[in-house]
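B., you asked whether I could sanity-check this one before it goes into the benchmark set. Here's the sequence:
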Amino acid sequence: MDEIVKATLSPFGIFEFFDSVGNDIMLASIRNYAKYDSRPERFAPLLAKLVELVIAGLLGQKSGAGFFDYSADLTISTETIPLDPEILKEITRRLNEVYGEAISTYSRLSGYSTAELRSAMNEYLGSTSLLLE
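And here's what the prediction gave me:
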């Protein structure tokens, strides 16, 4: 999954990002996303995994392990894996759906326009982003 996100969305993978921020912090954040999402059940697998990691004390880089093991001199591979174009297209569609809905919800709650939020997300994610274009 991290490789797909790196290929389509950002210079870092989702789980690499979670480990960097801290899985305990991401758990609270994803719970908030789910609370305001029209289909919160789609977050259930991720929430279950984050709860499992946090209970085990695997908070990410700050604890030495999370989705990745940081106890050794581990370098996250930059090797790309061959991706089936149809799978890549479907994952990109789903990521667009989740992020698009989150932007729409936040727009309603914050008073910022959807266009402003999309522009900010594209700026944040960088020019390599296929998402939110």
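One thing to flag: The CA atoms of residues 42 and 133 lie 23 Å apart. Otherwise nothing jumped out at me.
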